[in-house]
Amino acid sequence: MTDLLNGLIHLTSMLVLPGLAYGSQLAFGALGVTLIFGVLRFSNFAHAEGMSLGTAVCILLTLWLQGKGIALGPLPTALIGMCLAVPVMALVFIGTDRALYQHFRRINARPEVFMIVSAGVMLIMNGAIRLIVGPDGREFEDGERFIVTAGGFRAWSGLAEPLVLKTSQAMTIGLALAVGFALFLFLNRTRSGRSMRAYADNRNLALLSGVDPDRIVRLTWVLVAVLSVTGGVLFGLDKGYRPFVYQQLLLPMFAAAVVGGLGSPLGAIAGSMIVAFSELALTFAWKKALGYLLPAAWAPEGLMQFLSTDYKFAISFLILVVVLLVRPAGLFGKPVK
Amino acid sequence: MNRRTTLLYAAMAAVLLSVALLQSWQLALTIVNLCLISAVMALGVNVQWGVAGMFNVGTMGSAAIGGLAVVLVSAPPVRAAWAAGGAGLLASAAILVLTAGVALAFWRWFGSRPLLRGGAVAAVLFSGFLLAQQWFLPATAAIEAVDAASAGYLGGLGLPVALSWLIGGVFAGLLAWPVGRLTAGLRSDYLAVATFGISEIVLAVVRNEEWLARGVKNVTGLPRPVPYESDLQSADGVQTLALWLGLPLRDLASILVKLAYTAWFLAVLGIIFWLLERLGRAPWGRMMRAIRDNEEAARAMGKDVARRHLQAFVLGSAIVGIGGAMLVTLDGQFTAGAYQPLRYTFLIWVMVIIGGAGNHRGAVYGAFLIWFVWVQAETAGLWLASAATALLAPGNPLRAAFEQSPAQLRYVVMGLILVFVMRFAPRGLIPEATPEHQK
Known about the structure:
The structure holds two protein chains of two kinds. Chain A is an all-alpha fold. Chain A has helices spanning 2-40, 47-67, 78-106, 111-133, 150-157, 167-189, 191-201, 203-208, 213-239, 247-260, 265-283, 287-293, 312-326, and strands at residues 146-148, 165-166. Chain A has a single domain (2-326), classed as ABC transporter involved in vitamin B12 uptake, BtuC. Chain A starts with a helix and ends in an 11-residue tail after the last helix.
């Protein structure tokens, strides 16, 4: 019985909680990707850089707040910084749209052209990040680091395996639930959200019905700013901020969005969880867990690790390949040619 | 060649000549050599984007696998490593091939029941992979233990290095085929995401599989298609030439080596350029432009769009692979850590876009121009930094940023160039002039 409990605690602490946190962070990114795809009709290669830039802005604001002696007690000050960074990034995104994407929408450019332009935006943002915070990592987390510590849990339960819950993990999961819920309320219940969905579904019909396209576009970028700043900051708090680690999120985010069906918010969340848990489960060393859960005679000898963690993103790619082979429209998407 | 093209090329030549005269001949030739390699890569991207209208974000992967080909073809073989782990590697490879075969067979058998099919295929692949690991892990560990400081990998075949350029192209083409096949006929976004993914995977393999090409420990001392400087210095002819030119012997030897590289690269670029120009005039080129400009109409005329796209994609990737192989040969070493998407994918894109997509002359010109700007931007950045130091107050954060990282400005400059060209001059510096309406 204790073996079973130990095994379950080990899995929860090392696989389920990190998976939920990572999946939520991915979901913030994938929701942004899928919103831009659904409403503005292109794959935004600058999305990871946008998240990184949002986090960089939040870090600067957080440092400024910390300098003023403002803190949130046990919670990280970055939460306030995050709220302040959202309007900044919304302005950045809307400005970029005004300067660039708007023109290409007007001339009805091909989707590849949008992608190339977004790659250019990516280069500019990348350089801007280097100028703002420099190429090195930053620690900006303060407050309590852990909600449940390893030692505390061991003393309380008397089990050999510890349960660890980081503040950043709990915050990520909680915020993901809250923001996800709010987003669905917005898209389904409000007039603006409905007109946005109508615009994404059938542009001409929506225009005929009197939907203001400029307003929809602005609204989309505001939503993207909320999602990408929140996701970026939470990822930075959880893993430590390094400006260029976000580039590695681009592939999992796209994979998650494609798995769920490009343009489908629900699909983006489901896809993020699929990608996150496949990544973790396939690079997880199952030896200890199987040792606890299986009878002693069956206990494995090797690490029982399917792939080394260096190939994490190969898994997102694999999932992408399977989806493209089996169901190119994704889980929740409408079939596209 | 119209007047504009001639003028632009002449200006570029003048700029390079002024670098040679003002800075040094060695620097100018180094820049020219890298410009030539970039031009080959740009031609590859131009086949995909300019001719076929496909967005490939995986140029880096093609370049890296081309570079890997240099190691596998031309590095001296390490027999001890083959003896230590060759059998195990082959065994695991055989298991993987068998697994793939069984999986394929299951895929065919269970065609009517998708759930059973998916489950069976996944189970076969999973267990086959785990089984192969049983031989693979000890074998690679044994290979990496052989003389770990200087070898620790299988080595290559010891063949002439120029052959590896061709093989590099073949490798890159072979890698591109399944990716192109997978995304053929789907939205262009899928191609972009898939190429982005495959290039990251190639990079991960190259970095982590030490038994293959030493991973981040780098393979150095690769054979060269040109003589070594030290041999040239002791040659009689070179010594007389040095006396006659009044140049130091060391400088002359290095200039001659660089010139020899230039000749090689120029030859390769010339051949590829000539072939592409011929292809462009052939019915194939006309058809590709027709597909690019109006896919629906081309399809209505009975053209197999997905198949043509696949051809252009494989051809373009192969050309980039040749460029990647030449780059590794020029460096004389394979540095897995040096491959970055910004440098190997997006920089090449900037070259093609600014030069004039669809026009091979434009792509080559863009490669020269952008590589020159990229190299000299560091100097310009330093100059800008000193200007900023003079203009801005000491406490200004912008000044601190400029002082810290003048080279970082390069990315902003490249991004701005890309975006501005797309916005205001989408046809580039040397716009495409198709044979159909020759000016």
